[in-house]
Backbone:
């Protein structure tokens, strides 16, 4: 009986229900749009922020000099060595390819680095064993967002080197995967095979990327690199700037033993004397803050939209209950109790919420796509999470909006029914 | 020992009902026995509907005591009144109130649903019993006044209440339909149900066992 009662009441009052549904649709579509955009953008930006984990840049400590490649492993021996997630050295210069000047950089793709003496085991106070450890590092770790169409250059030593060519450079040079080209630097030259086309969204798109060894050979700078990007897990610096040189010894100790980016940089500089470190996280940090603000704005607007929707539902429900006063009185006179009346109207509200929510979510997904293309230039895909949340919000809004009207319905006296019309 | 006429079904003592300033019922005292057919009669505005509302637990009195089927109902909360009404009272109204978007059969079944669980067979039989077997799936808008009133009676009876209350059940009916409805009441009376009917109609007054005369809120009994 309950389903019939519900369905027939809805059927008979399509227009009224449609108004309440419309209120939910408005709220749900706004919520769904914003949540979808927000989650997706957050997801995308979050991935990028994580990959921008390269947060320290090492440069030669004096003008015109280079950093020693052989010293770099020492970063993995500092106090906070476990917080050094990876690094990748670069050596770059302009070369001539097909009579066009272009930047060629050498780096680690996925290099195995030996770190002597990293795993020390002790028996009592005596150093029993000094094991050699290895780590793998390079752009694959540090810049996981690099997209290679084709193959990564193979690590093997061959007569012909392998190179990644940036997507813009490939276009300019007319190169595609498998092509051979010759890079000239001064009197040196080396032939490379294009193993893949690289797209990173950064400067690399206009460059040729080869292994560090190949670049060093070509530029005749064996064992030298001109910059290193390091990814270190750090703790946010405290609000007021700390000047370590002014700290009393105990405080200095604490500062030194906290993974602040500044203390880690100092420790790197201590172990790699040819390098000076500077942080490169600021941009990403600001983006993170902006993202947070953006997110709050989204939630705020969603909240306002949902509140408005719930007021709309309340208004529609109120009219509906006023119009059905006699019917409610009759139901009570023939035996319905408050719970049964409440059930009926809450069920109606739930149906309203679900219909409105479903329509709103679909509109929201479409709008999110449009907004995504328009504002962010990216395709935004709905996540199960945002759909679920929008659905739950719609239902909650419809039920919350119905609360007061239903309370009124429950309080209607059955005696109204015996009074004249 | 217990039989018709020996058990008091309704005992009203000094019942008062005030609406803001108007006193619709003044110190009404009367008793109705089990199985009795009592008619409440009096001029318009005298308080008949008010009294029926109180007996049917649709409303509670301002003061006084009212025993119905062995329970004191004057102090019950709305929730308790609903429960009591569900178990003991069947109501028939002058303006044959049906839920407009439900069929005749569904209008009977809804009372079963509110009471406990619906039983379509029983609801069907109840409608056949009041001569409405041929109109089970009609909406109220497609039923005549007399037909609607018979559906309402079937609905009032479906949960086997001890007491049937009717507020001018034939007031809007022609002679033929009035007879049909009265026949149903006669049958209920013969089954031993307690019947209280508000009426202007002297003919009905003659059928009943007892008349509760009311004027200006005062009961002459
Ligand atoms: N809800 C109410 N609020 C205020 N006054 C009311 C209310 N209901 C009834 N009254 C008043 O109480 C008095 C008795 O009304 P009641 O409906 O019981 O009369 P009645 O005898 O049933 O009349 P009728 O034969 O016309 O139906 C009337 O004066 C009426 O105006
Ligand atoms: Mg009346």
Residues:
């Amino acid at each position: 009986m309950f389903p019939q009662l519900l369905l027939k009441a809805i059927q008979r009052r399509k227009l009224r229900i449609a108004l309440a549904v419309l209120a939910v649709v408005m709220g749900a579509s706004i919520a769904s749009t914003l949540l979808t955009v927000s989650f997706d953008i957050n997801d995308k930006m979050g991935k990028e922020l994580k990959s921008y984990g390269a947060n320290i840049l090492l440069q030669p400590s004096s003008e015109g000099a280079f950093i020693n490649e052989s010293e770099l492993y020492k970063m993995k021996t500092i106090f906070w060595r476990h917080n050094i997630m990876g690094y990748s050295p670069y050596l770059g210069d302009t070369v001539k390819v097909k009579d066009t000047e272009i930047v060629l950089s050498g780096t680690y793709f996925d290099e195995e680095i030996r770190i002597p003496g990293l795993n020390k085991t002790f028996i009592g106070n005596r150093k029993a064993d000094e094991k050699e450890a290895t780590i793998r590092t390079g752009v694959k770790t540090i810049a996981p967002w690099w997209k290679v169409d084709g193959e990564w250059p193979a690590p093997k030593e061959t007569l012909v080197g392998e190179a990644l060519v940036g997507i813009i450079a490939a276009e300019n040079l007319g190169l595609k995967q498998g092509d051979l080209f010759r890079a000239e630097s001064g009197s040196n030259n080396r032939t490379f095979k294009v193993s893949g086309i690289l797209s990173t969204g950064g400067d690399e798109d206009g460059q040729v990327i080869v292994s560090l060894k190949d670049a060093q050979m070509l530029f005749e700078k064996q064992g030298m690199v001109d910059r290193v990007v390091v990814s270190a897990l750090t703790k946010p610096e405290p609000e007021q700037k700390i000047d370590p040189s002014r700290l009393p010894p105990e405080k200095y100790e604490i500062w030194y033993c906290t993974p602040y980016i500044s203390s880690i940089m100092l420790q790197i500089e201590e172990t790699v004397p040819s390098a000076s470190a500077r942080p490169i996280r600021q941009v990403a940090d600001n983006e993170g803050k902006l993202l947070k603000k953006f997110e709050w704005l989204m939630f705020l607007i969603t909240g306002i939209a949902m509140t408005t929707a719930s007021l709309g539902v309340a208004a529609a429900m109120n009219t509906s209950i006023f119009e059905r006063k006699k019917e409610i009185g009759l139901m009570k006179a023939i035996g319905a109790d408050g719970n049964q009346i409440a059930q009926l109207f809450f069920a109606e509200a739930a149906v309203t919420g679900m219909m409105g929510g479903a329509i709103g979510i679909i509109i929201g997904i479409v709008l999110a796509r449009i907004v995504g293309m328009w504002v962010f230039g990216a395709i935004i895909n709905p996540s199960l999470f945002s759909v679920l949340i929008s659905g739950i919000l719609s239902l909650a809004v419809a039920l919350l909006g119905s609360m007061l009207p239903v309370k009124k319905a429950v309080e209607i006296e059955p005696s109204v029914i015996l009074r004249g019309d | 020992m217990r039989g018709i006429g020996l058990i008091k079904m309704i005992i009203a003592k000094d019942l008062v009902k005030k609406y803001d300033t108007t006193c619709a019922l003044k110190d009404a005292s009367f008793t109705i026995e089990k199985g009795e057919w009592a008619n409440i009669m009096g001029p318009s505005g005298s308080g008949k509907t008010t009294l029926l509302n109180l007996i049917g637990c649709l409303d509670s009195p301002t003061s006084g005591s009212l025993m119905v089927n062995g329970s004191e109902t004057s102090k019950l909360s709305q929730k308790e009144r609903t429960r009591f009404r569900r178990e003991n009272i069947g109501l028939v109204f002058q303006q044959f109130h049906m839920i407009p978007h439900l069929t005749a059969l569904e209008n009977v079944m809804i009372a079963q649903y509110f009471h406990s669980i619906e039983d379509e067979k029983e609801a069907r039989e109840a409608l056949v019993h009041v001569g409405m077997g041929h109109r089970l799936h009609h909406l109220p808008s497609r039923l005549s006044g007399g037909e609607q009133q018979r559906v309402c009676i079937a609905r009032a009876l479906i949960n086997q209440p001890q007491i049937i209350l009717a507020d001018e059940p034939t007031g809007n009916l022609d002679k033929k339909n009035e007879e049909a409805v009265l026949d149903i009441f006669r049958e209920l009376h013969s089954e031993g149900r307690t019947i209280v009917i508000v009426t202007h109609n002297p003919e009905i007054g003659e059928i009943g066992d007892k008349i509760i005369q009311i004027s200006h809120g005062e009961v002459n009994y």
Remarks:
- The mean pLDDT of chain A is 85.
- Residues B 48-49, 167 surround magnesium ion (ligand 2) (CB under 6 Å).
